[in-house]
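[Automated response] Your request has been received and processed.

Submitted sequence:
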Amino acid sequence: MIKSELVQKLAEHDPHLSRHDFEKVVDAILRAIREGLARGDRVELRGFGTFALRKHAARIGCNPRTKDPVSVSEKVVPAFKAAKEMHQRLNPTSLRQQNRKAARASKADIVRYVDA
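Generated structure:
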């Protein structure tokens, strides 16, 4: 969703604030993320996810057209990791399966200790 659509959706949910106010809020959040990453900080939005920088080492790549080796310099790229709450919301069935496996594993540990 692009920024203007996000601002529009937010403005529809709260009649007390104007669309312009929501635009300022969204801009402030995005600016804080950009500035934090520019400083090399990790930026966490609770319940949503974490933005961080990842370094990719220099390497020898391949020009796909000519197949000649090409030197690719080191670079830093932004990365996003979804928070557990966001992951659960997006993948409700996979987490249920993980919880079942964890419950089975803990029961198996209890049985081992009782038998031992």
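Summary generated for your ticket: The chain has three domains: 1-41, 49-82, 83-116. The first strand starts at residue 43 and ends at 45.
If you did not submit this request, please reply to this message.
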